[in-house]
């Protein structure tokens, strides 16, 4: 790859739970490829949609596998943000939202010394937080929301988004889009509301109606979680006429835990467009199945 300064990239990492459990070598190959190619990609941000691990607090070795791979990203000082997935909670939401192990390995301590760190909803907890970057003159706010976001967190998110009205907001959360191209709603498998520990949850349709559609600066939402399909896209306008790009991605049920597939989001500030594609770090090739590559014009950048 040859770097073009008019193009910058972001990477979306889907559920890595199978990788951290059974295929740590493939997980590390993924992060190694990202770091090795970060300069050519002009990589500015990495977003993880959650389910870092499979078994919460009961198998700490899975978090250690994650740390071993992700430490390469941290050492390269690439700004990143990790959403919490249902499998990342200590008891997998069977009882409550305890998240001590997630915060031990993916907590605020990873971010708070960085100049791009914003703030968090709860003190010393990373489930709901935001970071900020100015890229090629464009101000971005990256907002992570907990799995099955609670009403009180959405009130906080409203304020954060409103206070940064001059920023393009990109949201990462574990469950939001379903694999059929609709937002999650009652009746969908693995809806956040069905877990005993998250009976206070909002699903994707709730989060859209209660919060995201109201704000003119919300730009995109990325999520994972649902199975067995791998990808879906939804593009629609919010209440203020702004286009909101909504993407689901998850390969955990495919061979080798998804191979460490990532999505590469490339912005071209001259042509005013962005492309999103699927890359397999094991084969080092882009994949071209239906819907894997999309290109969008940007009218309001």
UniProtKB/TrEMBL annotation:
It holds the Pfam family Metallophos. Gene3D superfamilies: 3.60.21.10. InterPro entries: Calcineurin-like_PHP (IPR004843), Metallo-depent_PP-like (IPR029052), STPP_CPPED1 (IPR051918). Residues 12-225 form the Calcineurin-like phosphoesterase domain. This is Metallophosphoesterase.
